[in-house]
Amino acid sequence: MSGFLNRLVRGKQKTAATESRQDNGLALSHLKRIFSEFRHPTSGATIQSQEEKLYSMIPLFNRVSMFTNAV
Questions:
Q1: Residue 59 is part of which domain span?
Q2: Are 52 and 22 contacting, i.e. CB atoms less than 8 angstroms apart?
Q3: What pLDDT was estimated at residue 48?
Q4: pLDDT tens digits, the chain, 71 residues: what are they?
Q5: Rounded to an integer, what distance in angstroms lies between the CA atom of residue 1 and that of residue 8?
Q6: What Rg value do the Cα atoms of the chain yield, rounded?
Q7: The dihedral of CA 8, 13, 14, 16: what is its sign?
Q8: Mapped to the 3 state alphabet, what secondary structure does 31-66 carry?
C-alpha cells in the first residue's frame, strides 16, 4: 500500500512541476512579445504607451528570473 501512495504523491509533484514550467514558459513568451513591441513601436505609439509596456514587463521579468534562478 505504501508503494501505491508514494507513486500517487510523486505523480502529483511531477504534474505540478510540469505545470509550473509551462506557466513560466508562457510568461517568457509573453515577455518576449511585449519586449519586441517595446523595441519596435508602431508609428502611433506615444511615450506614455511605451512606458506602460515597460512597466507591464517588470512583473513578468521578475517571475521568469525567479524561476530561472531557482533551477
A1: 2-70
A2: no
A3: 92
A4: 566 556 556 655 556 666 777 888 888 898 899 899 889 888 888 899 889 989 988 988 888 887 766 55
A5: 11
A6: 19
A7: positive
A8: HHHHHHHHHCCCCCCCHHHHHHHHHHHHHHHHHHHH
Residue 67 C-alpha cell reads as 524561476
Residue count of the chain:
71
41 φ, ψ to 5°?
A: -70, 155
Q: So what's the pLDDT on residue 17?
A: 64
Other Cβ atoms less than 10 A from the Cβ of 61: the count is 15
Q: What is the pTM of this model?
A: 0.62
Domains identified in the chain, total number: 1
Q: Which amino acid is at 6?
A: N
